[in-house]
Design goal:
The chain is of the alpha/beta class. The chain is 42% helix and 14% strand. Helix 8 packs across helix 9 (241-255). The radius of gyration is 19 Å and the shape is globular. It starts with 11 loop residues before the first helix and ends with a helix. The structure holds pyridoxal-5'-phosphate.
Length: 347
């Protein structure tokens, strides 16, 4: 069960070569900046803090999904689709970036969106979906699992209209593994940036529970780095995420023909900073958001990155991260949703 197969570390050049064997369409503005944030680092306990600005990937307000979609849309194009069907919540960053990627590649998007915390408020991501001209249907569901049949039904309607839909099933392992490749690429990019500055990261913190931590953990492991990758989950799950993240990472390794297996015990994923529930600002996340803004002029989002920073602050307080250690915080984006949350943040 727990025999972690670990091949010899690969060089960046070899890992990059492996990654280049998988079809990809460029969508993201990379490399994204790696910014030193001394004031914020000092304020949260004297850590050496660097922020990897993946909120600046460029596509319709950016975020982490853009790197993931580079691999997913290669498959969309290979299948000859002309419309992409996807779904999540009304403030979904994933769906907004899908709608934008589709446009960038001359395709349409058809979205089925669940009410979520903000309902059909025409702000933030939902506003952008409409500006991008995605076909949007808002449904009164609350569980992601209930969405799959609706996506399939939507695809049927489109087929009847003579279209060629590509359904993005957010739960399918193939979708998750392909998307995680984007964060293997990000691990390579970050590794090079750190080396160029003579740094090595002790810890890497991010908001995530799927492709992003899986790809980063796999990429850094393949390179033989000992950086501790810590995902702070934004959503409460029925089971601990480490099992699924390890499963995604291993499936991603298979796509690359890598001799690397990640076990659940290799994955740190902390569920203690969700607060009341997904999409709801917590006291700690609000404090973290204000601290980043007021110490560094760095804007975080209310649903993901502010909870991740609250997690990092909590871990420094608990001694899991020590004064003087080098920490990379990945800013995964999510900023459009900020504008749907004014009341929650300012009262
Ligand atoms: C989707 C999202 C995440 C989580 O990414 P996963 O790949 O699902 O782990 C984190 N931050 C933001 C802003 C997101 O939109």
């Amino acid at each position: 069960m727990n025999d972690t197969t670990l091949g010899a570390p690969l060089s960046r050049a070899v890992l990059a070569e492996r990654l280049a064997t998988v079809p990809r369409v460029p969508l993201a503005a990379t490399p994204t900046p790696l910014e030193y944030c001394p004031r914020l680092g000092e304020a949260i306990g004297g850590i050496e803090l660097y922020v990897k600005r993946d909120d600046l990937t460029g596509l319709a307000f950016g975020g982490n999904k853009t790197r993931q979609l580079e691999y997913l849309f290669a498959d969309v194009l290979a299948q000859g689709a002309d419309v992409v069907v996807a779904g999540a919540y009304t403030q979904s960053n994933w769906c907004r970036q899908i709608a934008a990627a589709a446009r960038r590649l001359g395709l349409d998007a058809s979205l089925v969106l669940m009410h979520g915390e903000k309902g059909p408020l025409r702000q933030g991501n939902l506003l952008l979906d409409e500006l991008l001209g995605a076909e949007v249907e808002v449904v009164a569901l609350t569980e992601m699992a209930e969405l799959s049949p609706l996506l399939a039904a939507r695809a049927e309607v489109l087929r009847a209209r003579g279209r060629h839909p590509y359904v993005v099933d957010p739960g399918a392992l193939a979708t998750l593994a392909r998307s995680a490749l984007g964060y293997v690429g990000a691990a390579l990019e970050l590794d090079e940036q750190l080396e160029a500055r003579g740094l090595s990261a002790d810890h890497l913190y991010l908001s995530g529970a799927n492709m992003t931590p899986a790809g980063l953990a796999l990429g850094l492991r393949a390179l033989g780095r000992s950086t501790r990758v810590v995902g702070i989950t934004p959503i409460r799950w029925p089971e601990p995420r480490s099992v699924d993240i390890a499963r995604i990472a291993s499936a991603t390794a298979d796509l690359l023909g890598l001799d690397v297996v990640l076990d659940p015990q290799d994955i740190c994923n902390d569920e203690d900073y969700v607060g009341e529930r997904y999409g709801v600002v917590s006291e700690a996340s609000r404090a973290a958001l204000l601290l980043a803004a007021r110490s560094e002029g760095l804007i975080l989002d209310p649903v993901y990155t502010s909870k991740a920073l609250a997690g990092l602050i909590g871990h420094v307080e608990r001694g899991l991260v020590q004064r003087g250690e080098c920490v990379v915080f990945v800013h995964t984006g999510g900023l459009p949703a900020l504008f749907a949350y004014a009341e929650d943040l300012l009262g």
